[in-house]
Amino acid sequence: MNRDTAKRQILHYLVLILGSLTAAFSLEKILLPATIMDGGMVGIAMIISRLTGLPLGILTILLNLPMVWIGGRRLEKSFFIRTLTAMGTFSLALSLFGSQAFSGLTITEDKLLATVFGGLLLGFGVGLVLLAGGCLDGTEAVAILISKRMNVSVGQVVLFFNVLIYLAAGILFDLDSALYSMLTYIIVSRVEDFVNTGMQQGKAVMIITDQGEQIAQDIYDSLGRTVTLIEGSGLISGEKIVLYCVITRIELSTMRKIIEKDDYSAFMSVSDVSEIVGKHIKSHARPAPPLPLADEANTD
Question: Is 60 exceeded by the pLDDT of residue 47?
Answer without folding.
Answer: yes
